[in-house]
Amino acid sequence: MYGAVTSTLSKMLTSPCIQRVRQHMSVINWKTANYGCLMLKVRLCHSFDQSMDLTNGNYPASTVHSKRKYRSNSSPNQMASSQVNHILKANEYSFRVTGYEGRSGGSVVGLESNILASNSPSEDRRSAATCLQSRGMLFGVFDGHAGSACAQAVSERLFYYIAVSLLPLQTLLDIEEAVENDRPVMPMLQWHKHLNDYVSMDAGKLYFNSLRTYWQEHIDLHEDTNDEDIPTALTNAFKRLDNDISLEAQVHFGDPLSLCTPLRVALSGCTACVAHVDGDDLHVANLGDSRGVLGVQEADGSWSALTITNDHNAQNPDEMQRVLSEHPSLERKTVVKHDRLLGHLLPFRAFGDIKFKWSSELLNRMSEARPDILSGNEFAKMVPSNYYTPPYLIAEPEVTHHKLRPQDKFLILATDGLWELMHRQTVVQVIGEHLSSLNWQKPLTAVSFTLGQMQRLLQERKSRALSALEDENSVTHLIRHALGSDGFGSVDPRRLAKMLSLPQDLARMYRDDITIIVIHFNNPVM
Amino acid sequence: MRSCVRSSRALSPALFPRLLSDAGCWGTRPARRGLWSTPRNLSSGADPQQQTPLPSQARVVICGGGIVGTSVAYHLAKLGWTEIVLLEQGRLGAGTTRMCAGIVSVAKALFIESKMADYSCALYERLEEETGVKTGFVRTGSLCLAQNQDRFLSLKRLASRLKVMGISCNVLKPKEVAKLHPLVNIHDLVGALHLPGDAVVSPPDVNHALATAAAAHGVQIHERTHVNHILMEKGHVTGVETDRGHIECEYFVNCAGQWGYELGQASETKVSVPLHGCEHFYLLTKPLEKPLAPNTPVVMDMDGRIYVRAWQGGVLSGGFEKNPKPIFTEGRNQLDVHNMLEDWDHFEPMLSALLRRMPGLESCEIHQLVNCPESFTPDMRCLMGETPGVHGYYALAGMNSSGLSFAGGAGKYLAEWMTYGYPTANVWPLDIKRFGNLQSSRTFLRHRVMEVTPLLYELKVPRWDFQTGRQLRTSPLYDRLDTQGGRWMEKHGFERAKYFVPPGKDLLSLDQSKTFYKPDWFDIVGAEVKCCKEAVCVIDMSSFTKFELTSSGDEALVLLQHLCANDLDVPVGHIVHTGMLNERGGYENDCSVVRVKKNSFFIISPTDQQVHSWSWIKKYMPNDPQLHLEDVSWKYTALNLIGPRAMDVLSELSYVSMTPDHFPSLFCKEMSVGYANGIRVMSMTHTGEPGFMLYVPIEYALHVYNEVMSVGQKYGIRNAGYYALRSLRIEKFFAFWGQDLDSFTTPLECGREFRVKFDKDMDFVGRDALMQQRQAGVTRRFVMLVLEDHDTELDLWPWWGEPIYCNGQLAGVTTSSAYSYTLERHVCLGFVSTPAGPDGAPTPITPDFINRGDYEVDIAGQRYPAKAKLYPFSSLFAQQRRRKDDMELSNFQGK
């Protein structure tokens, strides 16, 4: 038995679930060396959880015991389905808009989201918030690269910049006055966060000052924000934030204490796909290769996908054209190499990544001032080769507007980790069927059926529904499909378990971090 | 809110206008796409606008024109009542009645239920002749199938119970089933029970026939009349407010079915009618290729959770699923009963069960899936009788989907109840007074009916408890006892410990522990009983109903002397066991009364007597401001210290000698226990064992319990539960009200003449009946039967309801049973009576008949010899103990 335990353990330790365990067990004194002890505690924790559930549900205690007995029978070599579920559900989040919040979102009834990490720690981030001073709700996925610092900062800050851009002048004045006089400020955003979506505390003051400067400029420059013009507001917010990230890094790069924050943020990068929903107006600002897809239900009940963003990478000819046109034709061969910007970067637009934005003088000055930050960085060289006419990378988003129709049932925002694994049509199909199976579709009128035909139909529906019902959260359900699909529309549990128990270095080759937000729109099905 | 029955599916039970007192009540006929197509006579549809006005006055107003309401009207009219008005908000039989499956079966859980079903069946059969209305009655018989041995056992138990009532039934082998039904797949069957008397009818037609007959007897029926609320004055019904005007009346009967709960709430004094709706589905098929004969037996495959009957050449099949869908929790909503949605996915398990049972139906075409909401009650039994608190307000509802089977009999009993003050049979299990306001929460009902609905077809083994709606009322010690291994059951919402699982020992899970044989807790309870006999045990008995009756003068004593059969004019501090009898001399309550002060009495009654006993006392209580009755159940925690060392524990805690010399039996004293003062200590244990009951004000409960447990340690104290208590009291021949005693049992019949104050020249309720019975001699007698030649390990255990045979002839039925750890035998308590004399009248019973007879107890068809006793054998207990002492001494010698 002990052997079996350790073998499971080694699997667990090399899998991404270690991350989850680490978070989960933070109370217990964690010692990496003490594997056996850890395993025991994990087991204990499991059964404890379960018995808690049962006693709360007022079952007799004897049931608890039998459950425990059953648990110990599960095969030690195969990752148990409860373990699989634990990994998949560790970061799942769902939020239902109640009447009170509903006034601002209007058409949004709820959101579901999940992050499945492949990198350790995950470089993806997600955000969702309700705008309190203006109308609408904001949702975003952020795919970081070269570390998670930039994605973290953007996921925290971007929505504030957007909120400020959308606020009427009078509100900004009120806020400024309150800050000036040390009075409590009105909150701008109501975040909808998972417990694991942490906030970096150390840079709060810096971030705040940057934001304050932004609204002060707004107050100085503008008579009033034209709140009709959401695309401009979104674009301004994106550009301004990237600018601030860059400026903060310049101001602070001489400061050796700022190892973690502004410079780290600016050296790493992230893409962003942000949706703003206000009534039936949907705006999606996209920057990079994450994607927003609408789930549309046709009149006959079938599902189709409507992509409302364009990827900013080499696969998009328009984007390719843009990048090439911004640089002298001499650089035609070097700007994009192996589908990557300067041979390095997959997305063609991103936050941060000053190595593709700053002038080479500035970059060289920085590497001289701070040789320490280069060590361990994956781009060992500070200045990329063929770096002639920076900036190569922009942070200007492409904003699309869509009027929501009754058949638009949900919007999926997801990082490229998902789209690599699954076609958008399949994605919409899986989520759509999950929705309708949770709501038990009414079958056809049975008049012409025989009992036998009806039974077969019902049993088929039931087995499909059961697999869907395993996950209440449709995003978790989607991830389960993305990883474990047997190619015929259902999940192969063994494949899924294998995908999840891959050692981390291997995992990165099979899958990227996956971050998905599904936003459900008002419709009678929900 | 007048309901409009405009759904295309609705049926009009068009009655003969000439039979009706006011033909104008009948509405126009909507287009019909009905389930039940029997030829009907068309009525000349009158315009609803021209409805005849309601009478301004009536004796009885019945609300609800379903099968239940019309049955009540019919039986009241038969019993000679006049001025009966029946109000129906839509059309007659437009609710559950219209859509129910139409099966009348006697396969029911209780004697009284089988009895009602049997009567209903006979009634429906003769209705056609009586009224000329076709009722679709076909005596098809029914087959209850068993897929496993446990189910077969429960069917055999049912069979022996039905035989007691003279209802014919046969236990069949699977092969014989195939002969009776052409479609049944018998390969996975163990056996079956055939009930040849069961029948199918067309429910709306029966409803129609009952209404026609009632109308012929002068009952006024008004459709499309909605009852808004019930008017009351000084606790009496005075009238009914409808949307068409006001009717003054003396009696009101709530037969509103699904809407009974809401109607109960719609009166000044709210009336609790605890029922809740659940969706119920059944399937109709088109005729088979070779149409199924209309007299094909009904099949009840309870393991498959389905029933099947022949319907118009095809079948009708429904079931009671594991995951029922409760409905109408928020009361009536936009979902009209007639427009309920079909839910095929929900029906899938039942469809699969149907095709497994009758594979031949595979190619049969579907006609329709019907969703027919049914109402269910918290304990799976219907609600009948006068509601507590309001005189003249009767209810009959909550049929648990057996409305058709029960309606005839239940209507008859309710009519008798209203006429004579009580029906001709013991209906306590159905009495609405078994519930109180505490079962009236919508959340509770919703959760409980989700358990009750599947339970209808689930295997019911001895000692099952409801698992939902629990932990409502608990003692302050609940958590303490629970952590010490307490396993719980519920009575009247109160959690009571069954037994305590010792640390390290584990019992089977609930599902696995279901058995008709020796249960897994056998040794645990045995150890508790042993501890009660040899050392001391604590049982938390806080659930008992406790009243305090006080007065400034002697009004309290006068009232109790009138109510109780025993003499209560005893010195202060004495405890009197007494019955409260009805006019027939039967027990309405069996209680212990303590004279706490000269004019203050403490009345302890069984737990489920809380509502019934209260209203019984209130009924006789003069409206005197000097007299005060208070329910103090919640104020006291009751600890029962059972065992020979109980007095040592108590005297150590109170510095008072507790020996019988200082503290005689059946005596009560307020004293201090530990730091707590004012504890009522009573020298009785409800088991016949030595010990004390402590009535502790709740704030002291934990303290007293802790003190008792810590001091008791050296005397070997431990917790015990109600199973131990039950074993102790049954081996000592103690009868409990509700199980052994009912309102038809007199003290003379259970050997309690010594608790009746015949010698005092004092009148009390029931005295005349008892005097008469004493003169004539009793014809039935409560006896104790000790099973012999019964192997506790291997044989089926008795439960209750087993037939008792004397010299090979049926003599009675058991009422309760337990394993006696002292006798090492099973003990059954029950009633026996002598065979009828030559003139057909029952003959008085003699001690000889008891002592000389050869007795047998029939457990699921197997008869076990038993020794009948009229008195507990105290000698045997002493002997047993002596022999045990010898054993222990010899053990010392041997080695």
Automatic annotation (TrEMBL), chain A:
Cofactor list: Mg(2+)
Chief location: mitochondrion
Superkingdom in the source lineage: Eukaryota
Single GO molecular function: metal ion binding
Reaction catalyzed: O-phospho-L-seryl-[pyruvate dehydrogenase E1 alpha subunit] + H2O = L-seryl-[pyruvate dehydrogenase E1 alpha subunit] + phosphate
SUPFAM superfamilies for this protein: PP2C-like
Keywords for the protein's UniProt record, in alphabetical order: Hydrolase, Magnesium, Manganese, Metal-binding, Mitochondrion, Protein phosphatase, Pyruvate, Transit peptide
PROSITE patterns, sorted: PPM_1 (PS01032), PPM_2 (PS51746)
Positions of the PPM-type phosphatase domain: 108-521
GO terms for cellular component: mitochondrion
Annotated InterPro entries: PP2C (IPR015655), PP2C_BS (IPR000222), PPM-type-like_dom_sf (IPR036457), PPM-type_phosphatase-like_dom (IPR001932)
Entry EC no(s): 3.1.3.43
Subcellular location: Mitochondrion
PANTHER family: PROTEIN PHOSPHATASE 2C (PTHR13832), SI:CH211-15P9.2 PROTEIN (PTHR13832:SF779)
Task performed by this protein: Mitochondrial enzyme that catalyzes the dephosphorylation and concomitant reactivation of the alpha subunit of the E1 component of the pyruvate dehydrogenase complex (PDC), thereby stimulating the conversion of pyruvate into acetyl-CoA. Acts as a crucial regulator of T cell metabolism and function, with a particular focus on T-helper Th17.
Family: Belongs to the PP2C family.
Name of the featured protein: [Pyruvate dehydrogenase [acetyl-transferring]]-phosphatase 2, mitochondrial
UniProtKB/TrEMBL annotation, chain B:
Pfam families: DAO (PF01266), FAO_M (PF16350), GCV_T (PF01571), GCV_T_C (PF08669)
Top-level taxonomic group: Eukaryota
GO cellular component, one term: mitochondrial matrix
Segments crossing the lipid bilayer: none
Domain spans labelled GCVT N-terminal: 477-760
Main location: mitochondrion
Locations listed in the record: Mitochondrion matrix
Annotated coiled-coil segments of the chain: none
FAD dependent oxidoreductase central domain: residues covered: 421-475
Chain ranges of the FAD dependent oxidoreductase domain: 59-417
Domain Aminomethyltransferase C-terminal: 780-873
Alphabetized UniProt keyword annotations: Mitochondrion, Pyruvate, Transit peptide
Record flagged with keyword RNA-binding: no
PANTHER family in the record: AMINOMETHYLTRANSFERASE, PYRUVATE DEHYDROGENASE PHOSPHATASE REGULATORY SUBUNIT, MITOCHONDRIAL-LIKE
Function in brief: Decreases the sensitivity of PDP1 to magnesium ions, and this inhibition is reversed by the polyamine spermine.
Family statement: Belongs to the GcvT family.
Subunit structure: Heterodimer of a catalytic (PDP1) and a regulatory (PDPR) subunit.
Protein name stated in the entry: Pyruvate dehydrogenase phosphatase regulatory subunit, mitochondrial
Organism of provenance: Clupea harengus
Gene, per the UniProt record: pdpr
